[in-house]
Amino acid sequence: MGDQEILKRSPSQVKYDMILYAIRLVVLVVLLGWIFIWIMMPTSTFRQTWLPHLRAKTTTSTYFGSQGTTLLIYTFPVLFIASLGCIYLHIVKKANDSNMDRNDDKGGKETIWKRPFIVKGPLGIVSGTEVAMLLMFIGLLLWSFASYLHNFFALITQKSAAQFGVKLWELKLEDAGLILGLVGNICLAFLFFPVSRASPVLPLLGLTSESCIKYHIWLGHLVLTFFTAHGVSYIIFWAATNQISQMVKWEKIGISNVAGEISLVCGLILWIATIPGIRRKFFELFFYAHYLYIFFMLFFIFHVGISYASIMLPGFYIFMVDRFLRFLQSRTHVHLVSARVLPCDTIELNFSKTLELSYTPTSVMFINIRSISKLQWHPFTITSSSKLEPEKLSVVIKSEGTWSKKLYQMLSTPTIDHIDVSVEGPYGPASTNYLRHDSLVMVSGGSGITPFISIIRDLIYLSTTFKYKTPKILLICAFKNTSSLSMLDLILPISGTPFEISNLELQIEAYITRDKEFKSNTLINLQTKWFKPNPNDAPIYAILGPNNWLWFGAIISSSFIIFLILIGIITRYYIFPKDHNTNGIFSYSLKALINMLVMCVSIAIVASVGVLWNKKLSAKKGNNQVQHLEGLSPTVSPSSVVYYNNNGGNHNVELESLPSQLIAQATNVHYGERPDLRKILFEIKGSSVGVFASGPKKMRQEVAAICSTGLTENLHFESISFSW
């Protein structure tokens, strides 16, 4: 950043930047230290010198014992980074809300690491940042495996095997099984980060939980591959050495074999349910089998003991905080105001929300409808803008699976006037500064148009309220049938919020791939259904209030401190005396159970206090009252507002408002063809062009391949999708 750019920035911007840089520096130092520990962990220096020295300092403690070592080395650094990350993201959110950074990143230089590095592969589209992280993780696994193998096998000789009464290969097999378990635990330590939806760790890296689901899947494969090989190795070893009775032993101290076997069986059942054929045909089996993770983790901790489990604890701890907050939010039934039913088997649900709830474009929300399934939760893209529509939140659902088809049939019933709905979220990127680009190109296929609706609505707000010069928008959408053109009606909100789109430079190119021409007999009108309010329903609200990142960080740090205090007291006055009396040593499994219970209680107490406190503050402001949005007149007509310009051939459709006319005039429909994406993208002018793709995998890969070529330095690609 040059001196002139610094002078242009306000004192508050400079102050925020200095705080952010300081947090980044501290996080970097702690992170490098944590990575260094992981690198050193397999070495003989760490295991024979450093770790015994640390344990000698902590084992004599009457409050934590040897568990204090692993909590200090492995757990504390990550939770400290997460807490600092929450402060960092809070500052970034406040800066975005005040639009302080709208022109700071013009040109998009920071997106170099976000460019597609790998377009086609087992992990789908992968950016430079993700490739760097993957290489470091793979390097850690290979280094750990090789180091453990070298150090363990160096101690195995014919003499040592004879001392144990086994053959040389049998002793090597036992150690190999142990090494596989140790490497599997490294994968387990990272397994829960991608599925912690509200975690600050992923946003710090510019990632979201939705985009990282693929890593959770592959980490799950690695975990169960290593743990299965670990278990099979020990079973073969026991069978070869006539110790098969070891399989049914649950030792009071040390490793519990039965607990490990139960954990592995739960993991294998869960793993089998993830096979693509089973997942597609029996989704409910796949969904319910995932709840076995509770028993998988519980018996894993019983198997290895709480001290060693502290290695993988940070990711699981953050996941438990996130999971309990989701549980608290899901207990509330939210107010479903209306639904728009489209002829293309698609529906838009419109919910009431509090004014203080804000979210970024492309955010998602998880929905549960108990009348369809009590346990199933499904994610859907939010199409509304929290700025343009401060009292309403909308999602679009395409009727494709069993759950969504039942919902579509339910809403198609004329007599229905109320549906009990619970939600979790919204969840989305920490910041989305689309104004840094000169132009935005949005490429969608089918229902992939939904995240772009939220972006367009957000830009409508900026151009209407602040008169910002927004980027030129080119929306390229491909549909199978003419009826799917009704999806374009969703660009305009249903609420009566005043807005102006004449300042928005919007061009829509719609491609109908299966219909060769406009079919006048095709129904393209949508219907709006209003629901009666229920006194027990509440608007969707920010469960941790407007300062949600600060509260999340406070919950992580406070609950962990309370856990340390409680477990220290229990250890000092209950576990330690039993450990040092004449009757023997305190059971490892019971100690693990006590630790898990105290951990859960600490998280539950602190999280509940945070939620109740924010709910009380929200009630004082009157934010929890259901907004009667049904009294507002819809902005759009119940019939379609799209004006079809079929390559010069006009097909007039009813238009009732100026915004509808402007959207219609900006729309060109091409029948019987697909978009030539390479030609379109190469013709886009501008120093910085944001290119977003959402929809089928092949389409996203095609767009990513075009943007990753050296011929298009001005194109900055981003994939928006749940699948990979």
UniProtKB/TrEMBL annotation:
InterPro entries: FAD-bd_8, FAD-bd_FR_type, Fe3_Rdtase_TM_dom, Fe_red_NAD-bd_6, FNR_nucleotide-bd, RBOH/FRE. Signal peptide: none annotated. It is a multi-pass membrane protein. PROSITE patterns: FAD_FR (PS51384). It catalyses: 2 a Fe(II)-siderophore + NAD(+) + H(+) = 2 a Fe(III)-siderophore + NADH. The keyword Glycosyltransferase does not apply. Keywords: Electron transport, Ion transport, Iron, Membrane, Metal-binding, Oxidoreductase, Transmembrane, Transmembrane helix, Transport. The keyword Coiled coil does not apply. Its EC number is 1.16.1.7. One of its GO terms (biological process) is monoatomic ion transport. GO terms for molecular function: ferric-chelate reductase (NADH) activity; metal ion binding. GO terms for cellular component: plasma membrane. Its cofactor is FAD. The chain crosses the membrane at residues 21-41, 71-92, 123-146, 176-195, 215-237, 258-278, 290-319, 549-573, 593-613. Belongs to the ferric reductase (FRE) family. PANTHER family: FERRIC REDUCTION OXIDASE 2, NADPH OXIDASE. This is ferric-chelate reductase (NADH). It comes from Arachis hypogaea (Peanut).
